[in-house]
Design a protein that fits this description.
alpha/beta; seven-stranded mixed beta sheet; five-stranded mixed beta sheet; binds NADPH dihydro-nicotinamide-adenine-dinucleotide phosphate; binds (2Z)-2-iminopentanedioic acid
Length: 454
């Protein structure tokens, strides 16, 4: 992705990346996330004297600390099971560490470092006082009973509770961590500390949760797409749309796109995707939500119920669409997928997931003048409403649905404006990757400079 850059800048990037790879061997996801950010930032840092000589990129790519711990729990058969868990406290320059917990067998330290690094920029973009963190475990909640998940969450919180706090670090949900897991963790924290503190977000409404938090990431990605299309005097209404995933982010992205008149024709899980040419909406959306959120079933059940096509083991990127929202996981859309989407008429893509597009895919979208929104900008709605949940908890009040949604729309509009401010090129085109990376960087970097040598 460095080909259009001045050779001197390219050499600096390569030199920086060599050092980073040496210091963080084998952490490929972390290398990938850093390379994208550093490619945007290096020209800006080199031409800005106050950042140039203070090793700011070295400092910002080193997490403040990482806590690694064993989680032992007992399954329903009485066997002792052992998992590994982490909390990556990446950067708290502009506020307490903030970011989700991910429970999935693919979780490694590299994955959590990439997520914590990205979160630092994302949280800065929201304009709210939140630092960046991420955590999780290689625990697989799939196929586990509620009791097993409860015992795992309680055991994990025994250790995690020492490292978090409303002014220290405030975890939330991510893949495999939803309302059920947050409730078990919050209940255990409260028991251990004998305090009712705003130490997690994504809580249920009855104990301090915010309206719209469940919907916020999917709604926010859709609002960001609206903002991007508006720059071309275009809109979502009437467009055919591909969404991947069928979890928290995907479900509410599908709902909001349909509400705005888009026709969402795909959704997926790790087993395959459904292709519903009439659009996933109304009762069909309700069925999908219940299938995934309540019954924890497989997406093939949707195809069986409504008689649409189901493609086992495939991703939805071969379907002709004008808009796409990858909302499942990292690197789920590669260069070949991007080429197919563009060939089939793709106009814009907003990432609901974190880093779902590979560097080759991103380069292809940019070369093809597709509007491309990186996740740290377009999926920031979730953490934004988490920030609003913290505000409501601190004030001991609850805002209405309309109030939270209004604030969410305003935040997504502001993030889009920040991307335009830092990403508009001399020819008038907008590079949302540069816009989000530089826009997220400035506030964090300025705070670090103000603190001195930290
Ligand atoms: P969920 O666990 O609710 O849903 C995840 C979805 O993605 C499921 O459909 C799941 O399928 C699929 N998926 C997960 N891992 C893989 C994999 N390795 N291969 C194929 N499919 C996979 O998670 P969320 O919806 O919360 O998160 C989705 C993405 O959005 C993640 O990248 C997350 O970091 C990001 N995100 C989440 C936010 C939030 O507030 N929750 C905020 C911002 C970003 P299956 O059920 O078969 O595993
Ligand atoms: O990736 C993310 O932004 C999240 N998983 C949400 C984090 C949060 O603290 O709400």
């Amino acid at each position: 992705m460095t080909t259009n850059l001045d050779p001197k800048v390219q050499a600096e990037i390569q030199n920086f990346m060599r050092g980073l790879v040496r210091r963080n061997p084998g952490e490929t996801e972390f290398h990938q996330a850093v390379e994208e950010v550093v490619t945007s930032l290096m020209p800006y840092v080199l031409e800005t004297p106050k950042y140039r000589d203070v090793a700011i990129l070295e400092r910002m790519t080193e997490p403040d600390r990482i806590v690694i711990f064993r989680v032992c729990w007992e399954d329903d058969q009485g066997n002792i099971r052992t998992n590994r868990a982490w909390r990556v406290q990446f950067n708290n320059s502009i506020g307490p560490y903030k970011g989700g917990m991910r429970f999935h067998p693919s979780v490694t330290q590299s994955v959590l470092k990439f997520l914590g690094f990205e979160q630092t920029f994302k949280n800065s973009l929201t304009g709210l006082p939140m630092g960046g963190g991420k955590g999780g475990s290689n625990f697989n909640p799939k196929g586990k009973s509620d009791h097993e998940v409860m015992r795992f969450c309680q055991s994990l919180m025994i250790e995690l509770s020492r490292h978090i706090g409303e002014d220290t670090d405030v975890p939330a949900g991510d893949i495999g961590v939803g309302a059920r897991e947050i409730s078990y963790m919050f209940g255990q924290y409260k028991r251990l500390q004998n305090r009712f503190a705003s130490v997690l977000t994504g809580k249920a409404l009855s104990f301090g949760g915010s309206l719209i938090r469940t919907e916020a990431t999917g709604y926010g990605a859709t609002y960001f797409m609206q903002n991007m299309l508006n720059t071309r005097k275009d809109a979502i209404a009437g467009k055919t749309v591909a969404v991947s995933g069928s979890g928290n982010v995907a479900l509410y992205c599908i709902q909001k796109v349909a509400e705005l008149g888009g026709v969402v024709v795909t959704a997926s899980d790790s087993d395959g995707f459904i292709y519903d040419r009439d659009g996933i909406r109304g009762e069909k959306w309700e069925f999908l939500r219940d299938l995934k959120e309540v019954r924890r079933g497989r997406i093939s059940a949707y195809a069986e119920k409504f008689g649409c096509e189901y493609f086992a083991g495939q991703k939805p990127w071969g379907v002709p669409v004008q808009l796409a929202f990858p909302c499942a996981t990292q690197n789920e859309l590669n260069g070949d997928d991007a080429a197919t989407l563009v060939k089939n008429g793709l106009q814009a893509l907003a990432e609901g997931a974190n880093m779902p597009c590979t560097p080759e895919a991103i380069a292809h979208f940019m070369d093809s003048k597709v509007l491309y929104a990186p996740g740290k900008a377009s999926n920031a709605g979730g953490v934004s409403v988490s920030g609003l949940e913290q505000s409501q908890n601190a004030l001991r009040i609850s805002w209405s649905r309309e109030e939270v949604d209004h604030r969410l729309q305003g935040i997504m509009r502001d993030i889009h404006a920040t991307c335009l401010k830092y990403g508009t090129k001399p020819d008038g085109s907008v590079n949302y990757v540069d816009g989000a990376n530089i826009g997220g960087f400035v506030k964090v970097a300025d705070a670090m400079l103000a603190y001195g040598c930290v």
